[in-house]
């Protein structure tokens, strides 16, 4: 295994204000031409990532998987899906990224394995009462012959959360049936995951994104509560049997000890869809250290909402001493240029649009991209970490109208084809304006790319003044220079304007209103749209340095 660590900074705080670029490997770049992106594809694009100016990449799962849930159904946590490459390809990718000064985070999926994982096939083979079954959540069914599931709980993707196996027992799956939940009351599960963390730590990764971090600890004592009684209030008190229980943090304290075995310690960020008041626990320095803040990703285009979210999150991170995370898009939500192009503009409006067919003509694309660019410059000026999702630097829209037969998301299947799911933000990236799969690979793409992808490709935007790609590049370059201590000062602002400054007189002003706004004096460093004689047009952000 090559030692690639010498090229990257040993700063233990590298993650605090990093720009982390999420690679969804199957849709990033396809090196071997099988229509599925792969690790060599990532390696071949290290130059692109360097030019973009990101500090780290986070790779969504690349492990062997039947892809029942886009790779979040993991067959083997210590290997690479043969369609995506080999462990040697992984090492070469890490070495190339590290050589370029880019850190690497990998996705860890500890709430569930896949149903093809050796532990689960053992559990099926060994039968009820076996040690192998104790690693998962198996129960007898209800009713005289056990033909009813143990409870009426629903899975996140729709349908029952229990699946019956041939010997009559049922197992819990809070997501797809192909994703059996692990039993975190079992010490073997703890030990296994500590060793999985070490496996990747030893291979040189710098940190982890922890999937469903709020789901591992469960209170599965019986009788089970009815689904109708599982109120959010319970989660707020840490008393929900399934989500966000206080004892989940014991697991992360164990993990922290593993992280500290490395120099610098491994970093981690929790994916925990919990109430904002409970997020800080996941970001505890004795636990994972950082947690995703998904508030802006859900918010409508409103200055009041943005201000409130920024203030609250910056206050919250002070409590634990972590840094905040700003996210506008990821592989689970409608891309933000599309969200902002819809009336209502929040996540709920986007979900409704998608459910109604995801028709592109209902999206005001110009407005959406304009607001997306403004939102991006805003988050990049904030103290803390920014997470970018592949393709957002191209201003890529959601492909809402994928043909139904192309859809692969379990949400689509388990909702009886009523919820479209997340395929539309996972369509392979366009690298070239024309050609097979727009340069993604040589031989097609695993999800169909629409004709408008060509005009948004890297090739079409590269070197083009004012393009979204060039704006991201400029912004990341400047940010590197400007980003100082994690401090923010609120400046005088009107109702529709968000205005703050950072140390050394770096100002960020965003106009979320419908009319042009006044600007303070200052040298324009970067703006998301051309200014109107030193006035700020609607849906625009400017970075200024005070004179
Ligand atoms: C969160 C991941 O981001 C999502 O893609 C996945 O479906 C669920 N966790 C289940 O692993």
Task: Write a compact overview of the structure shown.
This protein is α/β, with parallel strands linked by helices.
Describe the protein's architecture and organization:
The protein has 547 residues and is of the alpha/beta class. The protein contains 16 helices and 17 strands. The strands form four sheets. The protein has a seven-stranded parallel beta sheet. A five-stranded antiparallel beta sheet has the order 11-12-13-17-15. Strands 4-6-5 form a three-stranded antiparallel beta sheet, with no helix packed on it. Bound molecules: 1-deoxynojirimycin. The site of 1-deoxynojirimycin (NOJ) has 10 residues, from loops.
Helix count equals 16
* Distance, first to last CA: 52 Å
Strand content: 5-15%
Q: How would you sum up the global shape?
A: globular
The value of Rg in angstroms is 23 Å
Low-confidence stretches: none
Bound small molecules, deduplicated: 1-deoxynojirimycin
Strand elements, count = 17
Overall structural class, as computed from helix and strand content, comes to alpha/beta
Largest sheet: 7 strands, parallel
Rounded mean pLDDT is 96
Question: How much helical structure, as a percent, in the residues?
Answer: 25-40%
> Which strand order do you get reading across the main beta sheet?
8-7-3-2-1-10-9
């Amino acid at each position: 295994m090559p030692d690639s660590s010498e090229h990257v900074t040993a700063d233990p705080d590298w993650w605090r204000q990093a720009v982390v670029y999420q690679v969804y490997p199957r849709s990033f770049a396809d090196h071997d031409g099988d229509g599925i992106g792969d690790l060599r594809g990532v390696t071949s694009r290290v130059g692109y990532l360097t030019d973009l100016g990101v500090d780290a990449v986070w790779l969504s799962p690349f492990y062997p998987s039947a892809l029942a849930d886009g790779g979040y159904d993991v067959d083997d946590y210590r290997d690479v899906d043969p369609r995506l490459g080999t462990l040697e390809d992984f090492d070469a990718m890490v070495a190339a990224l590290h050589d370029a000064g880019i850190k690497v985070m990998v996705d860890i999926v500890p709430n569930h394995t896949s149903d093809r994982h050796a532990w689960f096939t053992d559990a099926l083979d060994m039968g009820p009462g076996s040690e192998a079954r104790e690693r998962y959540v198996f129960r007898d069914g209800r009713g005289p012959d056990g033909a009813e599931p143990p409870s009426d709980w629903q899975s996140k993707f729709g349908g029952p959360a229990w699946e019956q196996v041939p010997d009559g027992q049922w197992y819990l799956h809070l997501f797809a049936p192909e994703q059996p939940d692990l039993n975190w009351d079992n010490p073997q599960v703890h030990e296994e995951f500590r060793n999985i963390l070490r496996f990747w730590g030893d291979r040189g990764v710098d940190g982890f994104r922890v999937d469903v971090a709020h789901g591992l600890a469960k209170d599965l004592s019986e009788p089970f509560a009815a689904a109708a009684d599982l109120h959010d209030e319970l989660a707020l008190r840490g008393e929900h049997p399934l989500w966000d229980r206080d004892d989940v943090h014991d697991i992360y304290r164990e993990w922290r000890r593993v992280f500290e075995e490395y120099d610098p310690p491994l970093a981690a960020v929790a994916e925990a869809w919990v109430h904002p008041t409970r997020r800080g626990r996941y970001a505890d320095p004795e636990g994972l250290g950082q947690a995703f803040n998904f508030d802006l990703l859900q918010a409508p285009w409103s200055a009041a909402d943005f201000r409130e979210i920024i203030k609250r999150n910056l206050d919250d991170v002070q409590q634990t001493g972590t840094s905040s995370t700003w996210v506008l898009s990821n592989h689970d939500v409608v891309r933000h240029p599309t969200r902002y192009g819809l009336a209502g503009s929040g996540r709920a409006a986007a979900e409704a649009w998608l459910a109604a067919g995801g028709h592109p003509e209902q999206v005001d694309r110009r407005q959406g991209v304009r607001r997306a660019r403004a939102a991006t410059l805003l988050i990049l000026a904030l103290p803390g970490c920014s997470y970018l999702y592949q393709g957002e630097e191209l201003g890529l829209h959601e492909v809402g109208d994928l043909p139904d037969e192309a859809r692969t998301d379990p949400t689509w299947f388990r909702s009886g084809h009523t919820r479209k799911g997340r395929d539309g933000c996972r369509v392979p990236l366009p690298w070239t304006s024309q050609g097979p799969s727009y340069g993604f690979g040589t031989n097609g793409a695993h999800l169909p790319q629409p004709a408008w992808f060509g005009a948004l490709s890297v090739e079409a935007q590269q070197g083009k003044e004012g393009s979204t790609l060039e704006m991201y590049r400029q912004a990341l370059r400047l940010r590197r220079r400007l980003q100082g201590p994690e401090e923010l000062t609120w400046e005088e602002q009107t109702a529709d304007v968000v205005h703050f400054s950072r140390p050394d007189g770096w100002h960020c002003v965003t106009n979320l209103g419908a009319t042009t706004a006044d600007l303070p004096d200052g040298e324009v460093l970067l703006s998301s749209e051309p200014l109107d004689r030193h006035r700020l047009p609607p849906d625009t952000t400017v970075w200024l340095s005070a004179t």
